[in-house]
Specification:
- The protein has about 650 residues and is of the alpha/beta class.
- It folds into 2 domains: about 5-230, no CATH class; about 255-570, 3-Layer(aba) Sandwich (Alkaline Phosphatase, subunit A), CATH 3.40.720.
- Helix content is about 45%, strand content about 10%.
- It contains 23 helices and 17 strands.
- The protein has helices spanning about 5-10, 15-40, 45-60, 70-95, 105-115, 135-140, 145-155, 165-195, 200, 205-210, 215-230, 235-250, 295-300, 320-330, 340, 350-355, 375-380, 405-415, 455-480, 500-505, 515-520, 550-555, 615-635, and strands spanning about 270-275, 285-290, 290, 305, 360-365, 385, 395-400, 400, 420-425, 485-490, 525-530, 540, 580, 585-590, 590-595, 600-605, 610.
- The longest helix is centred in the first third of the chain and has 32 residues, at about 165-195.
- The N and C termini lie far apart (about 90 Å).
């Protein structure tokens, strides 16, 4: 009689299986309450979000099977606390920044939030639900049964020694872990199918969190951070010394070896840079049935410096890579993007350099604040002001955001309010893939290419050219053009198929198609630099790329770029200018085009195949520049390059 009473009392306590199930359900409710704050649920996102969230929780719960008795309950409490803390901070950051924060930027973001806002004012009444499950889990977990007791209840008798309990724990762990990993893989695959490459670069953090859940986003982010740290070990003092000596050897003092611009006209002038989406050089100066594709750029080129051997050098970061290279003069990272992976590094940039000289600096982009991590990267690039989608008035949208005409119109109004001299950086959007414009905005007579991807591209470029023309006309009317250096360049080559018959026909290759040499030569993007009043102009044939823009501008404004920690070269004045490197294995140098991974060398201009040699110094040059770039990124060494003896 007496022995039955304790047994009856024990039977009222929940078994481990019940506790695990209870915790899992409560965790799901908690997480989905947080996810509802992120919004933007499509059918595809609902599925990938389920797999992503369930996958993380299954992996988290799989570890519980490795503990015995009360230890399992305490682990579940710790896991619950972790999920609650992550969810709590994600909600605060979402409400304050309208974005999700990465592990590497957490402390900086928290300091920024608490400096500008009382964090408790961001709380909502429903947030009490974040801790509601503790009222159930704490007493349940503290009354946890041992595996031996569980087995007895399942089988009706106590098992032989510890074998069954051990098998139970191992089996539960393996099953939950396996299902969790499969779910995470499924979520990532669905997201990558929807937005190719997004899990590799994390270029839109909020979209990822909306699609796979905030917990899975943090898993992907932690994976990226781990991969970055594994790329190379910290540099030894000898390696740092060698890096500094390499930099000094490859960046000698400036010489006036090329076209010497009239430096006097740039003193204390405004600097306006326009980065144009997917603008390639092959459309410049071209016509279709007598109609110019880029009439406004063609007109500007006549009174500007035009660089006709300027190649795209972007990598995984695309537009963000171009923006980074132009402003900081470093090649893209080998994996991911500087904007996402290294926003907290200390950079010498156009913005920081001009701000130190008394300039007002502003970035004007109609993107979402967190797109490509610009919200965190902008201060690191030296931008004192940022005009993003939250700051623009509502207007017509095409593709990723506000149309280029609306963006330039509102951006011009912002320029009129800036204290001069200023540096402003514009990014266009309307010519972004898939280049689809409303019918009323298709004003180019592209009849031979109607209803094709290439035809859409030509229409989009023509549309953006018109917007740039109207912007320049307004600058001239307002008197800003005569007091500004204006720079326009394409961010990267357009994502057009190499074997597109319309593209081949337009370039005059007919049915022969585009061979490797011609395709690599097609990766040119235009660079136009207009000085006040068109004081100096002409065609510059020096090979270069976006990484050379910052040092070239320093030269135009009377500074020696070799005094700055920049990887690129001044295309006017550096004796070692004439180099373009792409991480896809292409190198342009000294009249040669190297397809390094294809083990082929071409003579630029003729396309003649030249002998390939493993000992060619160009191969070492290619790898040295890119390896050193990764080292500079990973250990925040840019500003230390000038301090080597």
């Amino acid at each position: 009689m007496n022995s039955a009473k304790p047994q009856s009392a024990k039977s009222k306590r929940p078994t481990p299986a019940v506790l695990v199930a209870l915790a899992f359900v409560l965790f799901l409710i908690k997480v989905y309450l947080v996810l509802s704050a992120f919004g933007l649920i499509t059918q595809l996102q609902a599925q990938s979000r389920f797999f992503g969230t369930a996958g993380v929780l299954l992996i988290l719960f799989s570890v519980a099977f490795l503990f015995k008795g009360r230890g399992r309950g305490l682990y579940l409490l710790a896991a619950d606390l972790l999920v609650t803390a992550v969810s709590f901070f994600d909600l605060l950051f979402l409400r304050h920044f309208d974005d999700i924060i990465t592990l590497r930027t957490f402390l900086t973001a928290w300091q920024d939030l608490t400096r500008t806002t009382a964090w408790w004012t961001l709380l909502r009444p429903q947030d009490i639900l974040l801790i509601a499950d503790f009222f159930f889990l704490v007493p349940a977990a503290l009354g946890f049964h041992s595996p031996r007791e569980l087995a007895a209840r399942v089988t009706g008798s106590l098992p032989s020694p510890r074998r069954r309990a051990l098998l139970y724990r191992i089996g539960g762990f393996v099953l939950a872990l396996g299902l969790g990993l499969l779910a995470l893989n499924r979520a990532s695959a669905m997201l990558d199918k929807d937005q190719p490459g997004i899990t590799r670069t994390l270029y839109s953090k909020l979209y990822i969190a909306q699609s796979v859940g905030n917990l899975d986003f943090h898993v992907l982010d932690a994976k990226r951070a781990w991969q970055i740290r594994l790329q190379s070990p910290p540099p030894t003092p000898q390696k740092r010394l060698a890096l500094g000596q390499w930099f000094k050897a490859t960046h000698p003092p400036a010489q006036h070896t090329n076209v010497p611009p009239a430096l006097g006209v740039t003193k204390r002038k405004n600097l306006i840079i326009i980065q144009v989406e997917s603008l390639q050089q092959f459309v410049i100066g071209k016509k279709i049935d007598g109609q110019e594709i880029t009439p406004n750029l063609n007109r500007l080129i006549k009174s500007s410096y035009y660089f006709d051997h300027y190649y795209g050098e972007t990598w995984n970061g695309g537009t963000a890579d171009a923006e980074f290279m132009a402003n900081v003069s470093q090649y893209p990272v080998s994996k991911g993007s500087a904007f996402i992976d290294y926003p907290m590094n200390h950079y010498t940039s156009i913005g920081s350099t001009f701000a130190a000289a008394g300039y007002t600096t502003a970035a004007i982009e109609a993107n979402l604040p967190g797109f490509w991590g610009m919200d965190l990267m902008a201060p690191s690039l030296g931008f004192q002001q940022v005009m993003d989608s939250d700051d623009f008035k509502p207007g017509q949208k095409i593709g990723l955001g506000l149309t280029d005409p609306d963006m330039f119109q509102q951006g011009a109004a912002r320029l009129e309010q800036l204290k001069q001299p200023f540096y402003s950086f514009f990014v266009t959007l309307s010519s972004h893939y898939p280049f689809e414009l409303p019918q009323k905005d298709r004003t180019l007579n592209a009849a031979p290419y109607q209803h094709t991807l290439f035809g859409h591209y030509l229409q989009a470029v023509h549309y953006t050219d018109q917007a740039i023309g109207s912007f320049l006309d307004r600058l001239q009317k307002d008197g800003l053009l005569a007091n500004s250096v204006v720079v326009i360049y394409g961010d990267h080559p357009a994502p057009l198929p190499r074997h597109d018959p319309q593209l081949s026909s337009f370039l005059g290759f007919g049915t022969k198609g585009i061979d490797d040499y011609r395709w690599q030569e097609m990766q040119k993007i235009p660079l136009i630099i207009h000085l006040p009043g068109g004081a100096d102009h002409g065609i510059v044939h020096t090979v270069g790329g976006p990484v050379d823009l910052f040092p070239t501008l320093l030269g135009l404004f009377g500074q020696d770029a070799s005094h700055y920690p920049l990887i690129g070269h001044d295309l006017f004045h550096s004796p070692l200018a004439g180099l373009a490197i792409s991480r896809n294995g292409v190198l342009y140098e000294e009249g040669k085009l190297y397809n390094i991974y294809g083990r082929t060398v071409y003579q630029i201009g003729t396309g003649k195949v030249l002998p390939w040699s493993k000992s060619d110094p160009a191969l070492k040059l290619f790898h040295t520049y890119l390896d050193n770039t990764d080292l500079i990124f990973q250990y925040d060494l840019q500003q230390k390059l000038l301090h080597a003896p």
